[in-house]
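Exercise: predict the fold of this chain.
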Amino acid sequence: MSTATVVTATMLLLAGVAGKSAQVPLHTWLPDAMAGPTPISALIHAATMVAAGIFIVARLFPAFLAARPTLDVLAVIAALGMLGAALAALAQDDLKRVLAYSTVSQLAYMAGGLAAGSDTAAVFHLLTHGAFKALLFLCAGLVIHHVGSNLMTRMGGLRRELPVTFVTMTIGFAALMGLPPASGFFSKDGLLLAMDRALAGPGLTDAAALLLYGCALATVAVTGAYATRAWLRTFFGEPRAVALPEPPPGTAHVVDVREAPRTMLVPVVVLAVPALLLGFAGELHVAFGVAAVSVVLALLGAGVVYAFWRSDPLADPARLLGPLRAPCERAFYADTLYAALFVRPILALATAVVRTDDTVVDGAVRGSGRSARGLSAVLRLAQNGNVQLYVSGLLAGVLLIAVGGRWCSHDAADPGGDVRMMAWPSTPIMGRFRAVVCR
């Protein structure tokens, strides 16, 4: 194939990958999809479905390597996606939306590894992410089941009430932050190493490689920040009691402060094992320089959030974002932009089509119906069941036929038209009328 053909084909594939794996600018569906049950989020939206886009790039990686402009576009998409989604996660109050934006960010990490030229590191992180993100979603489900709300403003101090959930979710957050010896540490190290080598490699342009690596390092710090924020607001501080409505007479409040049932605990305990140890299944070639920078940045982000939380445990540490908090909470107004560019115009067009259909098409049908009913109402006046009216009409018809017949027969016998005999007015109009009637 020619270079132009390969670039066109891979660009089109990349558009599908962006939609399937929730990458910028087709990422907005994933946070909204997290409203479903947490087992579905864990199974489909964290481990399998969104993985398909990354996996197809890895499977067709030789074609993408032959299309360098596509890799540059992929690098820019990944850079913007990983940092933007991480900042959005830092400002969310819904625990599942934090994990949803985290999924977008981690998928962008994998896309960045592919753009940097390492399909092995990307697929390895795909595997570890499937383990620890599914674990985090299921643990979030346990917390939501216990508290009765998705909002972290209604959580706090749950480590004493949910000790197993606390331990397993801590393992998941450690893997997400890339802290050793959790699995995310090894897979994220491979991605960062590939991006570091891309700075001096022949694959990406210098600007794309620098943007990708810089955003990746910044995302490491932001990931440590939002993971620590969610961990602290969920399990530490004072419990945030929610006033319940008064029950019906004779019904007592039942407060359940126990751990979740075994059917919910066993899956998270099982998933905690690969989330913690799966990193040792890969090739343990740790680049200590890159790994040290990654851990330091993650701990730096965590430390900043802890300092803000420690100063006021009741306040949200997201206040460290300052004026950026509102844009981050709204995910940089991507949904608002799409609503203005696509949703509202299409709704307006659809409304116009509906009105046209109702007014023109259906109006013509309804108008024909009204016309038929009006005509039938006029004709119905002659069919009112009055026998005298029927006989009168019959006699009038017979009389008209007899007179007309006599008129026409006389006209045939005497073409000159003896008007004296018939006493008809002899006028040109009457003559034409008689000719028409007789014909």
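Check your answer against the key: The radius of gyration is 40 Å.
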